[in-house]
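Moderator note: this is an archived Q&A kept for reference. The question asked for a predicted structure of one protein chain; the sequence and the answer are reproduced below.
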Amino acid sequence: MLRDSGNPGSFPLRSATLLAAMASGLAGSPCAKAAPSVHPSWSLINIRPSTFQPEVSGLDFLSDGRLVVAEWGGTRAGCCPGGNVGNRQRLGRVSLLSGVTGNTPNVTIQTFATGLEDPMGLTVAGDTIYVSGGNNIVRLVDADRNGVADRTDTIFTYPGTPASGVDSLHPIKGRSEWMYGLLNRNGTFYVNANSMYNATDVTQINPRRGVHLSVTPGNGIRGNYQILSMGLRHPTGLAFGPGNSLWSADIQGHWLPTNKLINLQAGRYYGFHHTPAESWDNMAESPAAVFLPQTDTLTDISLCPGAPLYIPTGPYAGQFFMGDVSYGGVQRLFIENIQGQYQGAVFVFTGGLESGVWRMAWGPDGMLYLGMLGAANDWTWNGQMYGLQKLRYNNTTTFEMLAVRSRPAGMEIEFSEPVGTSAEQAANYQVQTYYYLPTSSYGGAKQAVTTLTPTSVLVSSDRLRIYLALSGLQPRTGNQQRIVYIRLLNVHPQANAAQNSWTPEAWYTLNALGSGNPFDPTPVVDPEAFRAQLLNQLQWGVEGGNLVVRAPFRGPHTIRVRDLRGSLLTSVSGFGPEVHAFRLSAIHGRFAVVEAEGDGQNLRRTVVLP
């Protein structure tokens, strides 16, 4: 069986063995249309002891492998955790977890800091822990390095409307007043100051919120800041994306007809209006990269998304994961760059978790760590308001849509495995288009829902992609936020005519029509992620006296085998994702170097021979 060459942080090669069809309605289904259980290509591992019930609002790792967990600890009243208007709560804590990595965690827990105000962001920079909460960013200092913070230094305060008798650095407390997410790059912090209201209406208490900030820490409590992006409602977290771009989710509400993933860019306004109006409220709205349709019956894809997490390697390299506190499970978001702007599709990724996912992090063991949170009414899933688990990629293949791309007159779908003849039938695809229109009302309904029937279906030569020719596709115009919904009705892989797609639905945000012809090579969104993806898919094994190498490329390629001194031992040329066999008798010694050249990349991997 082909295997990875030994990199513990990579995704191994997906096995050619397809899983049996999964029945609907399995235990652990997050909602009506979510994945029925844990994604078959991933194994769920529990982390927390039963006595540890963290309400996770931040995750990161120290260099020694300890997991840093921020715990919110706030009050819960009514919908969403917003019942503490006017009263600042300092119930948050940070814990350090040892022994979390690997397949069989043996966890010990140490309380690092307590008395924190509404921590909703956490990052580790130079093994120092920083937390954002309320209207502050604080540094937790462990001077004697005993695993317990000795003091809490405020390095930044976002000013607001002064409370009676104090200054603007001690502002009035509003509903859900948080500093969402926290990132650090080269000494600069990035954080989202969400919009906030009083208890009864949508009047803004503190001005100049609903913004994305860059912060230079100060020695006192003020620090320096710059407003980079505006018009955000509840931007629940931050992530770096391709090329160190910045990304955030935002949650449905007034002026936000549905949830969305945003590529934050300096000087952009993202549509949320304040009362009284801010100076930027008359700017043109920049579109989201991916809208996540929501309905109150949970029949779409999202209700209360948490922080996004970029996927730098593996089969989904260049995409994002995003949890959801209310919908349950984790969604997966594909992005492509059209006319200089990102847009893309959202898919259900996994269910079967113990609670609603709010924060995620990649561990030093290459696994996906999931932190969970909840509150009353519709801000919870599965009736549980805490949780901590992780997912390990288990080297199995699951038939699913990997990507959906826009073309000038249709949509192109990429699959994880070659499709069978069922994919050639237009009747096996349900396609709808509709749009959302931002208004001052809370949320928004789908407008002008239209069913489109593919006029033809094309299949690529490798059968990994299909093209649906569609008449009537319209990109975004003005504030009409266009969605293309695709559902697979009866599409199966070539290897198993009874196997259904793990997630049969996709919601694509059509800001602009793509270019090119069906099955043209797709532009590389993130060259580093693309290279990492190819390298992870350059897999090898030893079978029947042969060194077997799988080429990961789509186009022409050359595979060379050299000894450690660089001498060429054997080579072969091919096209596409072929598997090549080299006789071991032509290779001398215990070690060899496999070189793979194709798709504009030169890859090298050292192999160990019997």
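Archived answer notes: The longest helix spans residues 527-537.
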